[in-house]
Amino acid sequence: MCMPHDDPDHPHSLLPPDPALRIKALETILTRKGLIDPAALDEIIDTYENKIGPRNGAHVVARAWLDPAFKARLLEDATALVSELGYYGRQGEHMVAVENTDDIHNMVVCTLCSCYPWPLLGIPPGWYKSDAYRARTVREPRAVLADFGVTLPERTAVRVWDSTAEIRYLVIPKRPVGTEGMDEAGLMALVTRDSMIGTGLALDPQASEAKA
Amino acid sequence: MTSAPEPKFSEPWHAQVFALTVVLNEAGHFDWPDWATRFGATLKRHGLDKELDGGDDYFIAWLETLEHYLASMGMAETQDVLTAKAAWEAAYLTTPHGVPVQLAD
Question: Which of A63, A168, B61, B62 is least enclosed by beta carbons within 10 angstroms?
């Protein structure tokens, strides 16, 4: 296979896409003015690529399942509690935890843009940022849930939380049956990213074991 | 979770524009709520003609918001950005493949 940059008629470096060049231009100008440190950019990318992800949120959820006092504090003041665990917001936002029960299923959206609890879940998936999800979740949450393969009992109401730059939400999914006696690490493996956005449920321990 | 992790950013420039914005915010050049309001307005405007899928189109809107914001604050004027972009483009086109690309000056 001959990649464009291997073409002997074009022996120069592969030209990055237009947006990448526009970003390099901004970086050059801001660096020359001393407004940014290029090393800080690499550090941010490394943090969000490698260090922050849904395991942070799963840790919080598993703790909440195991420890009623922890859960009570989480529901009362999630910002303080997750900060103590090192999962604090870099944008100064408040964290709110909402608990799924037999009566209420919580879902999170951001109709404005894509506000999301980065310290707990990392970078949002593409669908969270799509117009389809952002518009439809408020209008027809049950239809959106069905697209994700989630069907709730009739008696369970769906509550949609619209994130803002100031407030980000974490859903505490229902603890699956058959998880009595499981430890924190075992429980964490059942807590998916989607279950903490409200577009999924925590995994069934037997099903997840069979899969593994 | 047994499946392979999804890439956090599907393109390197998505990560770069994200990081640039976060660094500027953390350095105190703007508040995040102010950023979110501007970004939300761009997404809304772009979403009038077509449905945005949350991929490239999302980060294109992000970049456009950042460019306008930095220009409005006098931190990166539009003409300077175009000049720097042209310089990078020239550098890529004149640097032999395999050699790190750098600006001439």
Answer: A63
